[in-house]
Amino acid sequence: MKVPQKAPDMWAVIEKYPDVYSLFVDPGIQELVTKYNRDYLHWEELRRRKLPVEAEKLWAVIKSSRVMQARHIEFGEWDFQYVQSNETLRRLHLLDTRGAGNLEGRPGGVSAADRRRYIVNSLMEEAIASSQLEGAATTREAAKQMLRQKRRPRDYSEKMIVNGYRTIRRIADMKSRTIDVDTLLEIHREITRDTMENPVDEGKFRDNNDIVVADPQDGSKIYHTPPDYRKIPALMQEFCEFASSDEDEFIHPLIKGIMLHFLIGYIHPFIDGNGRFARSVFYWYMLSRGYWLFEYMPISRILLHSKTKYARAYLYTETDDNDLTYFINYNLSAIEKALEDLEEYIVRKKEEQAAAMQLIESAENLNLRQADILKTLLGESDRLFSIAEIMGKYNVAYDTARRDMQYLSELGYIEQIKVRNKLMYRYSGVAG
Question: Where, by residue number, does the polypeptide cross the bilayer (predicted)?
């Protein structure tokens, strides 16, 4: 990916072109400014457009309007700013009303068993996609099978995914915990276990400057040079205070969570694992602020499908005076898409479940017990069942339970999975 051209300095442009002041009252120019601010174009995009005036002049007018609306965040030695457009406010309202709600309010309602299944599916998807963003080389289907079977990881990529899954499950259980430096190091240690070149670097801030964010295909193309490692302890302490504080000037929790995500990428406090760590911290922060539905939304899957835009959002911010609006807007759009995907997933799964239940009830090749076994497996299709469980639930002998499961497997209703040399079973429609 090409590094975007750094945006011109507004005051330097005004000094260079004194006639630019006339554009501030030109109705046609103001209409363009409104349009390009709505889309929040970066200089890299603006300069390639066919424009009625020099691109630099129009940029100065656009930038001036943004400066007047901007809210500022002082962090470390930097001044970050962001603009809340009408589109930003629309997305915040949408995610406030739907992202902090619960699944019972969804069409048709969602049972406790369904909620468990959706959470497990989402956490798997999040761990897999977040690891794939950092280079994990495995398919989604193979990774989910490994996690479902609780198989030991065989290589670096699988270790990344297992670590991510364990970490994100743990974070979901610690949402009421106040973030501090020790907790951050603990999260990093979990997410990088047995995957660092030097195990000493697990759960430890970097102690050198031998790190840059570069193009993975062309290491000479530098995207970002993180701050000096000696500043990291103080910056991360400030990070914890910022995450835990309630500012005099209110920052919407979604925007603040996205800022925390950005700051980890900007500071790059660790030798490796910064991306997975940043997304985990964002996930923790949103759950800690009452956005429970985020437990069901694998946002990293959206980022993975648009990872060029994800990377560009970082670069646009850094090449335009640390204007976080680019990164905020991109992430809000990704979150909105994740919410839409979740709602579509729930509707689709409930329709599939209803159709399957109807098929089971009308099947002439099943006796009543076998039909009921299928309903049980369908109702908890996120987990594996043993023959012993079927024996206990239906009060039948081992041979009867085994024959039932074998018969249902032959008919294609369920699948057999060997876990540590033991046969387990699940409804075959479980794959998401």
Answer: none
